[in-house]
Amino acid sequence: MAQLAQLSKLERQIGIKSSPDKFYGFFRNNMPRFPQMFQSNIKSFEIVGGGELKSGSVTRWKYCLDGSPLMGAKVKLEAIDDARKTMIFDVVEGDVLKMYKSFKAKVEIGADYVKWSLEYEKANNNIPDPDVYLDMAAKLSKGIDAHLSK
């Protein structure tokens, strides 16, 4: 009998001072600026095939988690909901998939917070929860908020 996939979920909420519209607009429209803004973590970002970021877009990231070697990921923007200020990303290729069979990230901007949710399936039981990815998401969120609050 086939074993059902064991999906797990982690969430983290980060308080923000900037307006939700301003934060979401910046996040949605300025990802190509992340390598300049977060040089210690985001090394490169590109939209595969160019163009604007929209549902179905595929992006390529080079990044370092704190203390990690350079890693890469190919990420599909699965959904954008501008009314709800929500974006869902699905990792389709890259280093994270060596540890997790599947890995999705959802970012949702509320009245005074950014909420990150990770949904993943571990490759085996010895794999840690991906808290380091939530740490990086929190760092990016705080950096964007600080930039917008200047």
Automatic annotation (TrEMBL):
Pfam families according to UniProt: Bet_v_1
Domain Bet v I/Major latex protein: 5-150
UniProt cross-references to SMART domains, sorted A to Z: Bet_v_1 (SM01037)
Regions annotated as coiled coil: none
Signal sequence bounds: none
GO biological process: defense response
PANTHER family assigned: MLP-LIKE PROTEIN 423
Protein name (record): Bet v I/Major latex protein domain-containing protein
Native source species: Manihot esculenta
